[in-house]
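Journal club side-thread
Mid-discussion, someone asked how the predicted structure for our own chain would compare to the paper's figures. Pasting it here so we can look after the session.
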Amino acid sequence: MDLRRCTELSPGFSIEGPIKHDSAGTHQVIVPRHLSEGRPYVFSERDELRVTLQRDLQRYRVSAGDVLVLSRGARNSAFFIQKVPSPTVAPLLFFILHPGSQIDGAYLTWYLNLESTKARLQQMRSGTRTPLLHSRELGKLEVPLPPLDVQRQIARLANLMFRQRQLQDELRIERDRMHALVGRQILNSLVGWEERNG
């Protein structure tokens, strides 16, 4: 099914210049630095970035279960929104996808982040300096729709596989750290032995 038929798709809001934090702002804003590829987004206090804009921001609202897709750049990564304060909005750097009743947001995120899907999105982009994905092209993307329970199983499996890779990376880093530490201790012992027996 076309993406435009199984989601409500809209671009984020536009603003001139950089987004500046206003402690009295009415809306939380999500920006790329808040997001990590492969990990559902859960709002943290360190992400606080509030704005007040003098226009209706309802169409730019982001809620739990939604998906954000980067509209600019070479990757067009997708991010599943797990928890955000209300109201939260997203800027023009993103497309906001509100999944319909027949598609799970976590599954959609998994599908959009497949390398085969990203290759198709790459063909849709225009521009060379800063490649741009247009909403009308994104909306034409075909998305396979197995039953919802199957979609959720796929999303859970993808999350477990991501966590496994994370743990393997952490284990490798810790192993390398311990290897270096033991190596330094051995060298220090040898130096001390030579000084005592030199």
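Post-session note: The first helix runs from residue 3 to 6.
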